[in-house]
Design goal:
Blueprint: H1 2-8, H2 24-46, H3 52-58, H4 62-93, H5 98-113, H6 116-124, E1 132-136, H7 140-146, E2 155-160, H8 161-164, H9 167-192, H10 196-204, H11 209-239, H12 252-263, H13 266-295, H14 300-324
Antiparallel strand pairs: 1-2
Helix pairs in contact: 3-13, 4-5, 4-9, 4-12, 5-9, 6-9, 9-11, 10-11, 11-13, 12-13
């Protein structure tokens, strides 16, 4: 009977011999990248064209620091104009008024189509159109001629175009107005990402459209708006180098290029420009990370898990209090 039991009993399977999957491509990639990195480091250390001592000595001189301050000021002012005007254009694009929608569409179409370098040079030459920029009644001379009044002027005040449209102002306007077109699309996408039920609930509570936009929609849309806005700020920091062709002398790249041209050490100054922009961009990336983390509270897997855990805790507490009663 034992033999019959042995024959009928199922044999246990042998343990699986697990063989780890080999990835030879990874080791090949590591070897190739290691060789390329070694070649790059060797180039930086041995090639005398970099002239590191001259570069480090020149990239912190007072003219360079003045250009750095100008670049930062230009970035901040252009982004303030871009964000403020972009919100207005986005609201116009979402308006039920067809005229406002058409104007906002034409604005975004024009400023997204024309390159920023072309805009900067164009704004730098606007002084050709007007000798003076004056404020007052439009078409005052034409109105006076219509009523037979010669030399009729209804202008309150004015400025010389050359005094107002300096290189810095022209570059700031070109970059800011161009940025507003991109920010309008970003803000519009952020507003449309908010569920319409939020607006309907706010309307049921009697809030006005301005209150709904300011207190309900925009705070929720910031989670979608902040990441691309951070990217646009970094792009704006780099695009400030375009105003060197306006020209704007109080700008980082202009000053670095001027030093290179004056000392015939052009390449080291270009490398110094890369280092400065790398440093500034890294600082902005850190700020963008903390802003995104702040405005993304309540979203994501970890936040949803915390919300569910709070709900379970509340339910458990409620049931325990009911049992105590």
């Amino acid at each position: 009977m034992s033999s019959e039991t042995d024959t009928t009993e199922r044999a246990r399977p042998e343990p699986i011999q697990a063989v780890p999957v080999r990835h030879p491509g990874r080791w090949v990639a590591v070897a190739v990248i290691g060789v390329l990195v070694a070649m790059f480091v060797h180039l930086l250390v041995t090639n005398k064209a970099f002239n590191w001592a001259f570069m480090v000595d020149e990239m912190f001189r007072p003219p360079i620091m003045e250009g750095l301050r100008g670049t930062l000021a230009l970035t901040v002012l252009a982004m303030v104009i871009g964000v403020s005007l972009g919100v207005v254009v986005a609201i116009m694009r979402l308006s039920e008024n067809p005229i406002l929608r058409g104007v906002s569409w034409a604005y975004t179409w024009f400023f997204r189509a024309v390159p920023r370098l072309v805009l900067a040079i164009l704004f730098g030459n606007l002084g050709i159109l007007w000798a003076r920029i004056e404020f007052g009644l439009p078409f005052d001379r034409q109105i006076g001629a219509l009523f037979g009044v010669d030399d009729f002027e209804a202008r309150l005040f004015g400025f010389s175009a050359l005094e107002i449209l300096t290189g810095f102002v022209a570059g700031m306007l070109a970059l800011g107005l161009s940025e507003a077109a991109y920010m309008a699309e970003i803000v519009r996408a952020g507003i449309q990402s908010v569920d319409e039920g939020q607006t309907e609930a706010a309307q049921a509570l009697g809030l006005s459209r301005t209150q709904i936009l300011r207190r309900i929609v925009l705070p929720q849309a910031m989670r979608v708006i902040i990441p691309p806005t951070g990217n646009e700020t970094i792009a704006m920091l780099k695009d400030t180098s375009l105003v060197a062709f306006v020209p704007v002398s109080t700008e980082l790249f202009f000053q670095l290029k001027a030093v290179g041209n004056r000392t015939f050490q052009v390449f080291p100054m270009y490398v110094a420009a890369c280092l400065w922009y790398l440093l500034l961009t890294s600082v902005l990336l850190v700020g963008q990370y903390y802003l995104e983390r702040h405005f993304s509270k309540g979203f994501g897997k970890s936040a949803q898990a915390k919300i569910r855990l709070r709900g379970i805790t509340a339910e458990a507490g409620g049931s325990a209090s009911e049992a105590g009663r």
